[in-house]
Amino acid sequence: MTQFDLSGKVALVTGGNKGLGQGIALALARAGADIAAVGTSDADETARRVQALGRRFVFIKADLSTIAPIDPIISSTVNSLGGLDILVNNSGLIRRADAVDFTETDWDDVMNVNIKAAFFLCQAAGRHMLAHGHGKIINIASMLSFQGGIRVPSYTASKSGVAGITRLLANEWAARGINVNAIAPGYMATDTTLDVQKRSWPAFRRPAGARPTTWPALRFSWHRAHPITSTAPLFRLTAAGWHAELAV
Which residue in 57, 59, 155, 204 is the catalytic one? Predict the structure, then answer.
């Protein structure tokens, strides 16, 4: 669809080497964007599939458990692909244990990746985008940002933080040409939900739990013409199908 044409745009996707991040990277590439993907393991499959679409691809190997790689990630993207128009903060970590047994290490490890690195990536990308007067940031929150969940205290806290930071950044940057949105998926069949999949929970017997893609919400998030995109809607994607609920 021409209204979602991203030809000439550059998108940076963290965790773009596998799972949901790979699905997002491919959706952006199909719309015309060149892709920079960040991950801790190789991205050969993502590279092959993006390049098969005629798009440029750069893989940046980095560990987002600290914020040390963040400035180099932004500079590598800009230097390799000529700019940065879209950031998708997708990288995430989850640890499962009962709240009464949850350790400080598991708390800190998850918070460092899911909220600390996500915020400082927004900050670094935002500086570049603000200097150019335009840009899109799409954060990946979670249905647990609203539902709470069980046995994932640091994940729920971090994804709730992602929802809040999304609203804050949208409030600060909307008037300066930067749209900040979040997508809140339900359970999807990725490596972060392997434990849940083994339990054969109902979400994985439904279509929305089967494949890691957020194409409908992504299209709405980056669509420049839509007036709501400057007011930080959170797109809630339920496990029953592509039901999108705007939470402003």
Answer: 155
Q: Which of 121, 155, 157, 154 is nearest to 138 (CA)?
A: 121
Residue 222 corresponds to which tokens in the numbers above?
A: 């980056």
User: pLDDT, tens digit, for every residue of 78-98?
Assistant: 999 999 999 999 999 999 999
SS3 of residue 25 by DSSP: helix
Query: Can 187 be counted among the known catalytic residues?
Result: no
> Which two three-digit tokens encode residue 98?
């009962």
Domains and CATH numbers, the chain: 2-247 (3.40.50.720)
Token readout for 185 is: 């998926």
Structure tokens at 19: 């799972």
What's the helix, strand, coil split of the chain in %, to 5?
50, 15, 35
Q: Which residue has the tokens 């700019």?
A: 83
Percent of the chain, pLDDT > 90?
72
Q: Classify residue 41 by burial, with Cβ atoms within 10 Å: 0-12, 13-18, 19+.
A: exposed
Neighbours of 45 (CB within 10 A): 11
